[in-house]
Amino acid sequence: MDVALRQAAEAAKGFMPPEEGLALHAAAAELPGGGLICEIGTYCGKSTLYLAAAARLVGAAVVTVDHHRGSEENQSGWEYHDTTLVDPRTGRLDTLPTLRTTLEAAGVEDVVTVVVGRSEIVGRWWSTPIDLLFLDGGHTEKQAQADYEAWARHVRPGGRLVIHDVFPDPADGGQAPYHVLLRAVRDGFSEMSRTGSLRVLRRLF
C-alpha cells in the first residue's frame, strides 16, 4: 500500500485496526482494472482511504455512501460519541466536514465520490454493478439487514463482499454483522478470508 495513504488512513478518525484496513486494501487491490468499489458507512473516511489506495493501483473508482449523522453508537451518551464531530449550530453529529478534510488532505478526491444519503434509499435507485461492496454502516439488526438488502444484489458474480465488525461470539461485540454474514452465505457468497473482525466473501452466482 502507498506509504503516504497508509499513514493518512491510520491517522484518520475511525475504528478500523490497521491490520483490518490492510486486508480491506488487499481485497480491493485484487479487482480487475476499471472496477467499482462501493462503501456503505463512511464515517470520517479511514476505511475510504484504504479503498482509495487500492483503486489507484487498479484504476478503479470508489463510491462511499453515508448520511453522516452517525450510527447509534456514535450518538450522545453512547460509547463512541465524539463531541468534536457535533455541529454547534444544530447540536447534531455531522461527520461530512471531517470526511471532506480527510479526502482532500490525502489527495484522493479524484478516485472517491461521496454520496450523502441513507444507504437503503440510495440502494433503491442504484443500478451499476459493483465489483467490491464494503458493508460497515449501522450495526443494529434492522439497519445492517437493510444495508445488505439494498446493496448485496448489486454485487456482480465473482465480485467481493466485505463485512466489518463480524463477531460470532456475543461477548466480543454486536451480532448484526455476523447475522448478515450468515445470510450472505445462504445467498450464494463464499467466505474467502478472515482478518480480525473483517470477512471477505466472493459471490458465486
Automatic annotation (TrEMBL):
Matching SUPFAM superfamilies: S-adenosyl-L-methionine-dependent methyltransferases (SSF53335)
GO cellular component: a single term: plasma membrane
Key words of the record: Methyltransferase, Transferase
GO molecular-function term, one example from the UniProt record: methyltransferase activity
GO biological process terms, semicolon-separated: DIM/DIP cell wall layer assembly; methylation
Descriptive protein name: Methyltransferase
Source species: Parafrankia soli
